[in-house]
Write a structure and sequence with these properties.
CATH superfamily: Outer membrane protein transport protein (OMPP1/FadL/TodX)
Structural class: mainly beta
Largest sheet: 14 strands, antiparallel, barrel
Number of helices: 4
Number of strands: 16
Strand content: over 45%
CATH class: Mainly Beta
Order of helices and strands: HHHHEEEEEEEEEEEEEEEE
Number of domains: 1
CATH architecture: Beta Barrel
Radius of gyration: 19 Å
């Protein structure tokens, strides 16, 4: 029973629908968090290896999530599929994402399943098993203002389900990318999840609104190296990522994020292998006693 309570609290307050999932099943959560927190799970294993410091890079189809303005940088169609096994000590969690992007536009689908859990009422009496899931569908568009300044936006439709109850919401992301503000230096700013409040029964909680500022710098050291830094202003934390292209087909990556506080700071690492128009990327991030999160993504250009 204690382990089930721990799973529910972790799912509800870290990755799920805030305190809604916890309270709905008769477990008292001391503090409510924002709804649809699954929106904070980033897209792409490459980005995960860089600790999410990506809004000033955003040069592949995952720009739909990280900074829609970056879609202007694409010169051919791209598709990406990512699978995430989050927090290996918490059973049942599975996250997947697919996005397809053209130069200037893209679409994305995200799904997070929580598996089945045993149900208990407020008195601890066993009831029927229950499940929960989150899903978001989004469309993105970007355009050039001039040769260096790009802007973009994303519209998301969100659907969340807990047992036989559901909630829906809409939100917008907006991004700006200044490419080569200085030689080899990009700057960016992204506002995410500005929208309506999903409502379960009689409780409505805000979406996880955030504002990120970022920079990315390319430097030829022993290997071509990309250094990126993102600062999230609300809640405040900093993410740093480094990518080195060891060979034409292999890239090594590492990063560090100082938060968010509820998810904890963490060191990230990963690699990417590219052959012709196909790429496979892997990343890993520890979450203390909750285990490791493993990210795998496959992408193609066509």
């Amino acid at each position: 029973m204690k382990k089930q309570v721990l799973v529910l609290v972790v799912v509800g307050m870290v990755l799920g629908q805030g305190a809604n999932a916890v309270a709905y099943k008769g477990i008292d959560a001391e503090k409510a968090s924002s709804a649809a927190a699954f929106l904070k799970i980033g897209q792409g294993a490459r980005t995960a290896a860089l600790a999410g410091a990506y809004c000033a890079i955003a040069d592949d189809s995952s720009a739909c999530y990280w900074n829609p303005a970056g879609l202007v940088q694409l010169n051919q169609r791209q598709a990406m599929f990512m699978y995430l096994n989050p927090m290996t000590e918490v059973d049942g969690l599975a996250y997947s994402n697919i996005n397809v992007a053209l130069p200037n536009m893209g679409v994305s689908l995200v799904y997070l399943g929580y598996g089945k859990e045993k149900g208990y009422d407020k008195d601890g009496v066993k009831t029927d098993d229950w499940s929960a899931s989150d899903m978001a569908i989004s469309g993105s568009y970007a355009r050039k203002i001039n040769k260096s300044l790009f802007v973009g936006g994303t519209l998301k439709v969100i659907s969340m389900k807990i047992d036989d109850k559901s909630a829906n919401a809409f939100c917008l992301d907006a991004g700006i990318l200044y490419k080569d503000y200085r030689p080899n230096l990009n700057l960016a700013a992204v506002l995410t999840n500005l929208g309506t409040k999903p409502k379960f029964i009689d409780q409505a909680d805000p979406l996880p609104l955030s504002l990120r500022l970022g920079g990315a710098y390319k430097k030829n050291l022993r290997f071509p190296t990309l250094i990126s830094l993102d600062t999230n202003l609300s809640p405040f934390y900093v993410a740093l990522g480094i990518e080195s292209k060891i060979s034409p087909i292999f890239s090594a990556r590492a990063g560090y994020a100082s938060g968010p506080a509820k998810e904890g700071p963490g060191i990230t690492a990963g690699f990417g292998i590219t052959h012709q128009n196909l790429s496979i990327d892997y990343a890993i991030r520890p979450y203390g006693e909750l285990g490791l999160s493993h990210y795998i993504s496959l992408s193609t250009r066509f």
